[in-house]
Design a protein that fits this description.
The protein is mainly α. About 80% of the residues lie in helices and about 0% in strands. It has one domain. It contains 10 helices and no strands. It is globular.
Length: about 240
């Protein structure tokens, strides 16, 4: 990897770290398409490794807003989804996977725009965890389902619960990838090289995360889900 390419990826990682630390979602959506274009072998393992310190920091910062009930059921669903995601990673072409996930994400976002305000139930948490486990293990992108299920909560609650669910789930995904030989040492090395850029983005986020109100966050979340779906459909 050339120094110029590494610098470009570092800028992308810094911006993505700022976005996710500020609003709770967006890191994989920003980083994954760039990596898929310039360093596809970095995915999904390298992306998941980068997200570990990011989500650990956000979960700790917002720990008072954690919803343990929701996190528990999301984790249960995500555990099952992790194995399904690995099977898809092996058996299904990336083009078909992107198309299916993108279409499902768009449908979920449109349904959320049309649906009245709701309080997530146990089945909703389980479903969000299941879909997240599948998509994040297979592609590195798992934010939309979690963001949608917490869209009517406060900004702190969304950030806390998405980060904690990601953190727990990423450990499962990385263990499965490592056990199956799909996690390479060079991916860990590349992640370490990009860590200073990630820290810079996180540090800058402290000036923005306290300024977001619930309605603006919900609109961003829905926009994020729509853009995510379109990116996955187009990038085949």
């Amino acid at each position: 990897m050339s120094l110029g390419l590494l610098a470009l990826i570092a800028v992308v990682v810094a911006v993505a770290g700022f976005v996710q630390a500020a609003i709770g979602v967006g890191f994989a959506l920003i980083v994954a398409p760039v990596m898929a274009l310039v360093a596809p072998t970095f995915l999904p393992g390298g992306l998941l490794l980068l997200m570990l310190p990011l989500n650990a920091f956000v979960a700790w910062r917002e720990r008072r807003a954690v919803d343990w009930f929701g996190t528990g059921w999301i984790t249960a669903g995500r555990t099952a989804g992790t194995f399904a995601g690995y099977w898809i990673l092996v058996a299904v072409s990336s083009a078909l996977l992107n198309l299916l996930v993108g279409a499902a994400t768009l449908l979920a976002a449109v349904a959320s725009l049309l649906a009245p305000k709701f309080a997530p139930s146990r089945p909703a948490f389980l479903a969000a965890g299941l879909v997240t486990g599948v998509t994040e293990t297979a592609t590195g992108i798992g934010g939309p389902p979690l963001a949608l299920v917490y869209q009517h909560h406060s900004a702190a609650q969304l950030r806390a619960n998405v980060a904690l669910c990601f953190l727990i789930g990423e450990v499962f995904s990385l263990l499965l990838l490592a056990a199956s030989g799909r996690l390479a040492w060079w991916q860990a090395g590349a992640s370490l090289l990009l860590l200073p850029a990630l820290v810079l983005g996180i540090a800058c986020s402290r000036f923005a995360h306290a300024l977001l109100d619930r309605q603006r966050l919900r609109l961003f979340v829905l926009g994020f889900a729509i853009v995510s779906g379109l990116v996955l459909i187009v990038h085949r």
